[in-house]
Amino acid sequence: MLPQVVPALTEHALTASHPRVKEGANTALASVGAVIKNPEIARLVPALLKALADPGNATPGALDALAHCQVRVRVGLGLGFGLGLGLGLGLGLRFGLG
What we know:
Elements: H1 2-13, H2 19-34, H3 39-42, H4 45-53, H5 55-67
C-alpha cells in the first residue's frame, strides 16, 4: 500500500497551492516515516521529507545521506533477504541487497 500512497502524497499534495493541504501531506509522510523500524533508514526520514518539501534546495543533502547510508540486515534461518527503500519517495531511488 505504501508504494501507492507515498507517490500520491508527494506528487499531488506537496505541490498543492493550499498551505493546509501541504501541511497535511507533510504530516502524513512523517507518520509513514515514523513506522520504519530499521534505524539506519529511520535516520534518513528527516532528510527525505525535507527533499520532498523543498526539492530545489534539499535534494542534494538527501541524496548525499542516501549515498552514505550503510544498512545492516539480520537474516534468520530459512529467510531470504531483500531491502527495498520505499521511502526513496519522490526521489525515485531504490536500494537492494541480495
